[in-house]
Amino acid sequence: MTEQHDQRYCIKFSHKLGDTQVETIRKIQQAFGDDAMSNSRIKEWYNRFKDGRTSVDNEPRSGRPSTSRNENVIEQVRTLVMEDSRITVRELVNEIGVSTGSVHSILTEDLGMRSVSAKFVPKLLTMERKQRRLEIAQDMLDNADSNPNFLNTMITGDDSWVYGQQVIVLPHPPYSPDLAPRDFLIFHRFKAKLPGRRFQSSEVVNVTRDVVREFPPYMFQQCFLQLYQRWQTCIAANGNYFEGRCGSV
């Protein structure tokens, strides 16, 4: 299941609970943060469920996919990727109804994007973003080198649950899935275990638990050691993306 489907389920449940569009938008943004759908897309799906729709899946399309690369199609791809940076090329093809080649061309040529740790990000980082990656990587390395327990006390994940818990939130540079354990370590393993599968909302927790139980204990033990190595590699790469230049756990 993609994060896009997760959000659609949340919209569906909010509607069933009697939440207004405004309340639904607020809850989606609170739960998913920067990865939340745009307001217009939340409203669109809210209205679909209000009109009696029950499925969160895209409507099946008939006929051969179009090879169109007009402004409307490009904007559709841009919107979907901004809503869910982990969306796959196949899902974009199914959602919009254009060919795989067209989607690849739009992503790489028209939008200047590439896939890093299973997320679409800008192909080229600005100097400011490179500098931010360098600064944070160096700061994290300094903390780890000066405090032997620093890596042992770290946790990773979405930060929405830590509000009010007096947990220190460490900085993370934007467009940097290669520096986020959730992205470079965990998500692609879920993707490999569950290729192309869809689940009803009630199944998600059980399926997630089963997959996590299959992960070897050493994977989590070495997770932050790999993050330490990635900070070093980021600095050596002058803040550029470095996928493929690091070892994996």
Automatic annotation (TrEMBL):
Superkingdom of source: Eukaryota
Annotated spans, Disordered: 52-71
Residues in Mos1 transposase HTH domain copies: 7-52
One Gene Ontology molecular-function label: nucleic acid binding
InterPro entries per record: Mos1_HTH, RNaseH_sf, Transposase-MT_Hybrid
Biased composition (Basic and acidic residues): 52-62
One Pfam family it belongs to: HTH_48
PANTHER family xrefs: MARINER MOS1 TRANSPOSASE-LIKE PROTEIN
Protein's UniProt name: Mos1 transposase HTH domain-containing protein
